[in-house]
Amino acid sequence: MNALEINNLHKKYGENHVLKWVSFDIKSWDFFALLWHNWAGKTTLISILTNLVNKTDGSVKINGIDIDKDFSEARTNIWVVPQEFNFDIFAKVIDIVVNQAWFYGISKKEAMERAEFYLKKLELWDKRNMASRTLSGWMKRRLMIVRALIHKPKILILDEPTAGVDVELRASMWEFIKELNESGTTILLTTHYLEEVEALCNQVVILNKWDVVENTTTKKLLKTLDKETVILSTKEEKIMIPEVLQEKYEASHYDEHEIQVIISKQDSINDLFQILNENKIEITSFRNKTNRLEALFMNMTK
User: Fold this and answer.
1) Cβ atoms within 10 A of the Cβ of 232, count?
2) Of 20, 79, 169, 280, which has the most beta carbons under 10 Å away?
3) What phi-psi label fits residue 136: left (phi over 0), alpha (psi between -120 and 50 degrees) or beta?
C-alpha cells in the first residue's frame, strides 16, 4: 500500500492557480524529497494534506484513507514538522510532548516512556523540565520533531528541518532521520539544502509553476547531468594551465591554489589525472564546485 496517493490535485483562488493537476505517489517506508521553485505551491500542498486548506479538485489518500471520507482517521497517520515553532514557549519541554500524546488517547505512563525515549535520542532529556523558550534554535527544532513522533505517525513531513542549523548539528539530525526511516516511518522531506536530498532521499518530485516537472529516483535524476564543475587544489600557486586542459576541460584559475575544470559525463576522470601527471601538476585535493542536484533543479525550473 502507498503511504500517500495524490491524484490530479488542483487548487486555485479565484482565477489564480496555486496547484494544477498534481499527481504522485509515495510508497510506504519511502524517503521522498519535494523540491520546488518559488511560488510553486509547496506550502499549499502540505496545507491540503493536513486539512488547513481545502482543495479545489482531485483526491488525496493517506495510508489508503481518502481524506474526503474520513480525514480524522487519515490525520492520525501523518504529521508535519513545520518551519516555524508553534508550541507554548512558556511550557516545559516534557509537558509539550506529553500533552501532545494526550490528544491521541495515549496513556500518561506510555507517553512518558515515549517522551523519554525520543528526548534522549535527540539530546533533550536533560532539558525536559526547562521552559521551551530557554532552548536554542536547534533544540527547539528537535523538540518539534519529538512532539511529532509521540503518537508514532506512519508518515512524517519534515518541512526544512535543518534550516539555520550548523553543519555538525545537521549531520547528527541526518543520522536520526535516517534511523527513523529505516525503522518504518515514511518521510517526505522539503529542503533548500539540496545536499540532503543526495544524502538521504531515494525519490524526488520537483514542483515548478504549480505542476510536477519531474518525478523520478534521485539516482536517475543525477544521471541526467551532462557536465560537472570540479575544483582542483594544487600544491603550487598560480600554476600555468596547459593548453590541452583549457581546450578539453575549459580549465581556468579559480583561486591562488585552485583550478576549475568542467567534466562531461562521457569523460573519464582518469584521463584528466593522466594529463595532470604528464604536465607535472600535483593535485592535493578536489571537490565539486556546486551541488549536482542543485544544477539539475535550476535547469528544470527555468
Assistant:
1) 22
2) 79
3) beta
Q: How far apart are CA 78 and CA 61, in angstroms?
A: 11
Q: What is the pTM of this model?
A: 0.80
Separation of alpha carbons 29 and 32, rounded Å? 9
In this structure, the number of other CB atoms found within 10 A of the CB of residue 1 comes to 8
Class level of CATH domain 225-300: alpha beta
Contact between 154 and 78 under an 8 Å Cβ cutoff? The reply is: yes
**Cα–Cα distances in Å, from 137 out to 143, 146, 150, 182?**
10, 15, 20, 27
Task: Quickly list DSSP for 227-259.
Answer: EEEEEEEESSSSPPPPHHHHHHH--EEEETTEE
Strand partners, 25: 5
CB 211 within 8 A of CB 6: no
Higher pLDDT, 121 or 269: 121
Measured distance CA(91)–CA(211) in Å, rounded: 41
Could you tell me whether strands 211-217 and 203-208 are parallel, antiparallel, or unpaired per DSSP bridges? Answer: antiparallel
Per DSSP, the residues of 138-160 read HHHHHHHHHHHHTT--SEEEEES
Q: Write the pLDDT tens digit of every residue in 24-82.
A: 999 999 999 998 876 678 899 999 999 899 999 999 999 999 999 999 999 899 999 99
Q: Does the domain at residues 2-222 carry the CATH identifier 3.40.50.10320?
A: no
Residue spans in the chain of domains classed CATH 3.30.70 = 225-300
- Angle formed by the axes of helices 93-102 and 137-149, nearest 10°: 20
CA distance between the termini of the chain: 35
Do the beta carbons of residue 292 and residue 226 sit within 8 Å? Answer: no
CB-based contact 194:291 (threshold 8 Å): yes
